[in-house]
């Protein structure tokens, strides 16, 4: 495909090519969008001010667990 595209570019002086994302990249974009929205809500919300002083940045990591 790369050779064919290169030959086409040489012959026509332009190349039009669509390169999609792999599933891992799509998930990364989705999670990044969700995290940005979540951080904005967390930062601008009026409730949770005391806890926000301890944890100002959202995280998907588990911070506390209950063990019996």
Radius of gyration: 23 Å
Q: SSE order, as H and E?
A: HHH
Structural class: mainly alpha
**Main beta-sheet annotation:** none
The averaged pLDDT comes out at 86
- Which runs of at least 5 residues are low in confidence (pLDDT < 50)? none
If helices are DSSP runs of H or I spanning 4 or more residues, what is the number of helices? 3
Account of the protein in words:
The protein has 68 residues and is mostly helical. The protein has a domain at 19-62. Helices cover 57% and strands 0% of the residues. It has helices at 2-12, 23-44, 49-54. The radius of gyration is 23 Å and the shape is elongated. The protein starts with a helix and ends in a 14-residue tail after the last helix. The model has no long low-confidence stretch (mean pLDDT 86).
């Amino acid at each position: 495909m790369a050779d064919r595209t290169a030959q086409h570019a040489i012959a026509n002086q332009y190349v039009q090519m669509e390169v999609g994302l792999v599933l891992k990249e799509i998930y990364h974009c989705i999670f990044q969008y969700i995290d940005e929205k979540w951080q904005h809500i967390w930062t601008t919300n009026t409730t949770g001010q005391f806890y926000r002083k301890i944890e100002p940045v959202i995280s998907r990591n588990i911070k506390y667990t209950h063990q019996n």
